[in-house]
């Protein structure tokens, strides 16, 4: 086809701004990094975006769920057949091919390590801007000699390493060269304030679960020890002493579920604890809405290796208008205005957790005030739309 000079210039201009996202963390796999990437991706120009991601799960189910998800996206998603994309020569070749085929000139590594190691090959293939995002786990890794070396190399070969907040920045920067550390930029996740809002259908969930008129403490998260669902179960006897009808609603699935159910039996609170398992995204807002209080007293584990980066769930809870009880692991305190939108407790402290939750359950006016302030704060500071502008500028 013959194209005019103007059309060619327009094509070249378009190509100049295309971005290739390289990631292992993309829905339909649930989780915070996945939510982070997807929400940012939805706010970039879909014509100028190509996502190269791993497949959710092994087997037909994983491939089909990934394909169904991808078909609904406004941008192109190319899946690698593997469930874990690594910076192997084969995967790097595919990334380089996609960069060239789609005319991308910027690359966003959804999680810096280890895929950021592809940076030199992508730079050689024409990438002009390379941005690598860090989350919570890189702050833990930054303590390990081998992982520090990786981060250092990634820092040297990319333009910007992003961080969630001061906690993660201070940890990750120590692994980088002073030059790479000086090029770091803050890029926290946000919350979709239109999806998560007061009056999001909590009554329907309460009625369905038979919880109408009962005080509900809700926790939404993957079930892993760091998140502190165990602390909540252990806090239940103290909470029930003050609020005998209280229920702990544990939303999410994960490897710790069996242990948590056992703990509930041993603590003799099975009648006051409900597990929903993993929910589809569409069900989340109404489940937050079913709570009177949101609590996730996360704690740092394994000598700092297993640490919270921030905690999107606290922001989703605030956006819904709930007061929040958070743990003091890593960057989690950044997601709460202590004393205003909720409280930060010592992660793992059954006493502090029980006390804060009990006070909140007993004081409707305090819950309303903290919930309203939380909603306001999210609108001011944590909207994806605002944060995506930062990413656009970096790319
Ligand atoms: N669909 C669905 N179903 N989503 C869920 C479920 C579920 O059952 N359970 C949790 N989620 C969603 C939450 O609604 C939230 O959007 C996300 O998964 C969890 O995000 P985080 O609270 O941020 O935790 P994370 O451990 O998965 O994420 C890590 O990276 C984040 C982004 O950088 C941590 O380091 C976080 O601290 C960090 O904010």
* Overall form: globular
CATH class of the largest domain: Alpha Beta
Order of helix and strand elements from N to C terminus? HEHEHEHEHEHHEHHEHEHEHEHEHEEHHH
Q: What's the number of structural domains?
A: 2
Identify the strand order in the major beta sheet: 3-2-1-4-5-6-7
Radius of gyration, CA atoms, in whole angstroms: 22 Å
Helix content: 40-55%
Number of strands: 13
What's the average pLDDT? 94
Q: What can you see in these coordinates?
A:
This protein folds into 2 domains: 5-190 and 383-394, 3-Layer(aba) Sandwich (Rossmann fold), CATH 3.40.50; 202-381, 3-Layer(aba) Sandwich (Rossmann fold). The chain has helices at residues 5-16, 32-42, 59-71, 89-101, 119-124, 137-141, 145-157, 166-173, 178-182, 202-209, 229-242, 257-266, 284-289, 312-320, 350-361, 364-381, 384-394; strands at 18-23, 49-54, 76-80, 104-109, 129-133, 160-163, 185-186, 216-220, 247-251, 273-277, 293-296, 324-327, 342-345. It is built from 17 helices and 13 strands. Helix 2 links the parallel strand 1 (18-23) and strand 2. The longest helix has 18 residues, at 364-381. The chain is of the alpha/beta class. The chain has a 7-stranded parallel beta sheet, sandwiched between helices. The two termini are 32 Å apart. It is globular and about 65 Å long. Residues 1-15 have low confidence and may be disordered. Bound molecules: guanosine-5'-diphosphate-alpha-D-mannose.
